């Protein structure tokens, strides 16, 4: 049986060679696994983005930057979710994890986003640059040197100013519009996979809860605001678990694991505009 299988495979290769042109073209197609075109569902699983044309063979020369950015995001978002929910007495606005905010959430995501940008993955690079900047902002807000609350204190005390109703009400708008840009990402993620779509959907809810919490604090409703903070933390924990699953999928693909985990590919379920146009041209040609 094995000999017959090998013979059939060789015959298929010879027929493919005869039908598809020169020896060089044929060798280029079968040279290595890395040189084979990546199927659409595998591509969006690796890069969290629909495939776009990239100059040269950059994807063969460089590693996949997506896991790097995901690790940065997760090592900032996951502990922050636990802080927001107050697990095991955690609190203090996340001051103890300020460095992970800056180095993992900010810098590491920027490195991953830059790698995605080099490869021509506009959507995923936009994701990682945006949330990398978000975590840098979170970190800088906790660093007194930046004086983010100084304008809200008569004495210019940033810590005192950060606890005023005006500061809470103002910062809430920032969180609100982070939810808006995340909603835009969520709509576009319909072309990627179900897991990423759900991550962004829950993240929209999390930003809504946190912005509402800050407005409650601004009005002096500490109890209601605290409940919304916990709800936001629960949402953050939920999307973090889904993102951890995405990271595991990415790492398993990177080491060519014997089996793959499903992510609910949507790239073929929701065809792109260019594919629709191509099909129209083909049908018109017939």
Quick take:
The chain has 286 residues and is mainly α. It folds into two domains: 1-38; 65-254. It is 69% helix and 0% strand.
Characterise the protein shown here.
With 286 residues, this protein is mainly alpha-helical. The chain folds into two domains: 1-38; 65-254. Helix content is 69%, strand content 0%. It contains twelve helices and no strands. The longest helix has 33 residues, at 222-254. The protein is elongated.
Strand and helix map with partners:
Elements: H1 2-19, H2 23-30, H3 40-47, H4 58-61, H5 66-85, H6 98-118, H7 122-141, H8 158-161, H9 165-188, H10 194-218, H11 222-254, H12 273-285
Helix pairs in contact: 5-6, 5-7, 5-11, 6-7, 9-10, 10-11
Count of separate structural domains: 2
Terminal Cα separation, in Å? 43 Å
- Number of helices in the DSSP assignment: 12
Q: Sheet with the most strands? A: none
Written as H for each helix and E for each strand, in order along the chain, the element string is HHHHHHHHHHHH
Helix content: 55-70%
Give the radius of gyration.
Answer: 24 Å
Average pLDDT rating: 82
* Structural class estimated from helices and strands: mainly alpha
Uncertain parts = 1-11, 21-38
Strand content: under 5%
Count the E strands.
0
Which geometry do the CA atoms define? Answer: elongated
Transmembrane segments: 68-87, 93-115, 127-147, 167-188, 195-217, 229-248
Subcellular location: Membrane
Keywords: Membrane, Transmembrane, Transmembrane helix
Protein name: Protein alcS
Features of this protein?
69% helix; disordered N terminus; 286 residues; mainly alpha
């Amino acid at each position: 049986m094995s000999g017959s299988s090998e013979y059939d495979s060789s015959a298929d290769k010879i027929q493919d060679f005869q039908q598809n042109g020169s020896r060089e073209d044929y060798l280029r197609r079968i040279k290595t696994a890395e040189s084979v075109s990546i199927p659409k569902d595998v591509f969006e699983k690796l890069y969290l983005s629909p495939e776009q044309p990239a100059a040269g063979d950059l994807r063969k020369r460089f590693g996949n930057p997506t896991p790097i950015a995901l690790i940065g995001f997760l090592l900032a978002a996951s502990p922050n979710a636990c802080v927001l929910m107050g697990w095991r007495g955690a609190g203090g606005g996340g001051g103890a994890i300020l460095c992970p905010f800056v180095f993992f959430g900010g810098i590491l995501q920027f490195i991953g986003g830059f790698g995605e940008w080099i490869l021509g993955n506009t959507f995923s690079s936009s994701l990682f640059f945006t949330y990398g900047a978000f975590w840098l902002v979170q970190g800088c807000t906790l660093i007194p040197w930046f004086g983010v609350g100084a304008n809200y204190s008569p004495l210019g005390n940033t810590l005192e100013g950060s606890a005023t109703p005006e500061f809470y009400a103002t910062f809430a708008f920032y969180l609100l519009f982070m939810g808006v840009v995340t909603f835009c990402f969520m709509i576009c993620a319909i072309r990627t996979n179900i897991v990423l779509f759900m991550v962004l959907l829950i993240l929209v809810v999390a930003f809504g809860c946190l912005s509402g919490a800050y407005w409650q604090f601004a009005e002096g409703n500490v109890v209601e605001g605290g409940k919304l903070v916990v709800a936001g933390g629960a949402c953050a924990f939920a999307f973090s678990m889904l993102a951890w699953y995405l990271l595991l999928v990415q790492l398993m693909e990177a080491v060519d694991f014997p089996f793959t985990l499903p992510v609910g590919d949507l790239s073929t379920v929701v065809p792109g505009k260019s594919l629709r146009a191509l099909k129209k041209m083909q049908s018109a040609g017939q």
